[in-house]
Amino acid sequence: MVEDASPQGSECPVARTLESIGDRWSLMIIRDAFDGIRRFSEFQKSLGVAKNILASRLKTLVEVGVFDIRPASDGSAYKEYVLTEKGREIFPVVVSIRQWGERFLFKPQETRSVLLDNASGQPLMPLEVRSSNGQKLEPSDCHRMRLVNGVKDA
Amino acid sequence: MVEDASPQGSECPVARTLESIGDRWSLMIIRDAFDGIRRFSEFQKSLGVAKNILASRLKTLVEVGVFDIRPASDGSAYKEYVLTEKGREIFPVVVSIRQWGERFLFKPQETRSVLLDNASGQPLMPLEVRSSNGQKLEPSDCHRMRLVNGVKDA
DNA sequence: GAATCAGGTTTCAAATTGCAACCAGTCTTT
DNA sequence: AAAGACTGGTTGCAATTTGAAACCTGATTC
């Protein structure tokens, strides 16, 4: 009896990630959450997305473990959607997307929103891919490998 | 006469990025390109995507400037899709997505594909968001600001 | 207690996706 | 040089997903 190799999702972490949070609205919702948005109506107002779509996305994001539902912090009977640890760790993804967009999709003087460090008020350092010993890596400096049971596959 | 504030796309770099490369297939195509895939049929085989969808995505990725079309390097009359500088700079986005997936979407012993540094054969360093002076930043250490003509907006 | 707001669900039309068939140039094989 | 296969698509159609709007229930405010 052989165990099913992939009960859910692909073997590629990129593919599997995109399956759970990889649509436009989910990432925009998460971006808003990083700005402190927690309530359904606030997400809806900020994004302008249809309510049924927002409800559906929030539901799957909760199922996937990116958001928790909690009673609202203002004591009302309503709920709040707050990022879990798993959700907060999406921060580098959103920041790298933001930095790419700032660099390649805006003209220098064009109006944009930027992310600043609270302490210094300065823009963030550009994210760079580095090897385990700190060397900066280009795409061509890396290769993919299949890892089966923690061991390299032929 | 007032200039139109946003002729195309949102003011948020995250939103604008997701508009151009933010669907599942586009990012998967780019991921494959980082693995050296260049030909239409190779993308199609690797991704299992419908040919009309692939054609449509490649077309917009070329229009957006992420890919260039070049004559095939093997001397045949066919074409190749190769990443531009702009396209190669999506690397941190793909790597951050990959690292999040590896960490949160796989059980420890589960078969997966990993990205290794050619030089050392080791996994990459986890991407971290840092301030301009190198301090590691959490989402709550940052704030968004609107930048109009290079100047902070009220 | 009436009106309003939060957080949805339902309905239906429109857009997108995916599959399969087809097609025009290339390239290889004989 | 003709036959067959491969490359890089396009076209048509069915199925799924998306989006706008109306509606609804419980909580809150007036």
Write the layout of secondary structure elements.
The structure is a homodimer of 154-residue chains.
Chain A: H1 13-21, H2 24-34, H3 40-47, H4 51-64, E1 67-71, E2 79-83, H5 85-88, H6 91-104, E3 112-117, E4 142-148, E5 151-152
Chain A binds a DNA duplex (30 and 30 nucleotides) through helix 3 and helix 4.
Keywords:
homodimer; 154 residues; alpha+beta; Arc Repressor Mutant, subunit A; two-stranded antiparallel ribbon; 5 strands; disordered N terminus; DNA-binding
Short description:
Chain A is α+β, with helices and mostly antiparallel strands. The first copy, chain A, contains six helices and five strands; from the N terminus they run H-H-H-H-E-E-H-H-E-E-E. Strand 4 of chain A pairs antiparallel with strand 3 of chain B, so a sheet runs across the interface.
Order of helices and strands of chain A: HHHHEEHHEEE
With strands numbered from the N-terminus, the spatial order across the biggest sheet of chain A is: 1-2
Q: What would the average pLDDT of chain A be, to the nearest integer?
A: 92
> Number of helix segments of chain A?
6
Q: Please mark out the parts of chain A with pLDDT under 50 across 5 or more consecutive residues, or reply none.
A: 3-7
Largest interface: A-B, 82 and 82 residues
Count of separate structural domains of chain A: 2
> CATH H level of the largest domain in chain A: which superfamily?
Winged helix-like DNA-binding domain superfamily/Winged helix DNA-binding domain
Question: What general outline of chain A do the C-alpha atoms trace?
Answer: globular
Q: And the CATH topology of the largest domain in chain A?
A: Arc Repressor Mutant, subunit A
Helix content of chain A: 25-40%
Oligomer: homodimer
Q: How would you sum up the major sheet of chain A?
A: 2 strands, antiparallel
Strand content of chain A: 15-25%
**Rg estimate of chain A, integer Å:** 19 Å
**Architecture of the largest domain in chain A, according to CATH?**
Orthogonal Bundle
